[in-house]
Amino acid sequence: MSSRRTGLLLTTIASLLWGTTFIASQVGFQYTNPYNLVFLRFAAAAVVIVIFALPFDNKVGLKRELRKESTWLVGGVYALGFLLQFVGQDLTTASEATLLSNLAPILVPTVALAFLKDSMTNAQKVTTALGFAGLFLVASPRLSMGLTSVFGDVLLFGTSLCYTLFIVASKRLRVGSVGRSFAYIVATSVFLAPVAVYFGGLNILDLKMGLAGWASVLYLGFPCTLIAISLYLRGLSAVTVSESAMLLLLQILAGLVLASALLGEFLSPSQTIGAIAILSALVLGVKTASKRNWSSSQAA
After folding, report:
1. CA angle 42–48–49, rounded 5-degree value
2. In sequence order, which residues have a C-beta less than 8 Å from that of residue 44 and are 6 or more positions away?
């Protein structure tokens, strides 16, 4: 199997695993607050990494990666993104969290325009407008439910911004090694620890979550974090950002289907139109970026 096909396969598996995150998180919220849950998710993965990776550090390179400043900078952005996602989802629903925290393919051209002074094509302008229109429709029912509900949607949008920066930075840094993937997880858990203690009142010695609560933590920590992040970053090193973004659409679809089937969550008519607009914008944005990358490679 070629490296590109392997990359596509790994990214697909990671996307499907992340699609189940919103359901597992919703279960976890019944037993603890979002600050504790997001920390415990990464702490569980980090503990396994430290126990099993350090003895083989000459091959994994975890210590080397943790000494790099870029690891902590990107890890800090990643930690902020997950913190916003968990707190935002706790204030909204799994369906809205699935949609509003996965707008990275729409936001990349806008971020490039703002910070890199890159130009936007007409298609990218249409994509951005369509995406934000969908965002408004998905969030609009919350406008009549008070500032708390609206604040949750704002936090989820912030998650998309953080994930946009994480994806672009990881691609630029050519992240693909197991050591760097593990280092990101450890760094993220370090950043989230004081947040859990201060805002979540975390006390490991007096943490009563029940069997279902701990099952949620372990599922989030291993398949959805340790395995998914490692697979995604490995796959990202072999495919383009555009291809990766297209495959991440599976995360949204999986999340919406599971939220409907398992939690009985259904979008209102206006939110359904908004979801269609967001998905259309994502597909258009990915196709536009793919054509642009192909044109650039031909010109070169």
Report:
1. 85
2. 217, 218, 220, 221, 222, 225
Q: Note the pTM of the prediction, 2 decimals.
A: 0.80
CA distances from 148 to 90, 95, 142, 155, 245 (A): 11, 17, 9, 11, 30
CA distance 75 to 190: 9
Report the candidate in 29, 43, 4 with the shortest Cα–Cα distance to residue 222.
43
Structure-token pair, residue 184: 């990101």
Q: What is the mean pLDDT of residues 122-134?
A: 72
How distant is the alpha carbon of residue 106 from its chain centre? Answer: 14
Task: Provide the CB-side half-sphere exposure for 177 (13 A, CA).
Answer: 16
Sign of the dihedral defined by the CA atoms of residues 94, 95, 97, 98, in that order? positive
Q: 209-221 pLDDT, tens per residue?
A: 889 999 999 999 9
The pLDDT tens digits for 5-22 are: 888 889 889 989 998 998
Nearest to residue 77, comparing CAs of 135, 160, 150?
A: 160
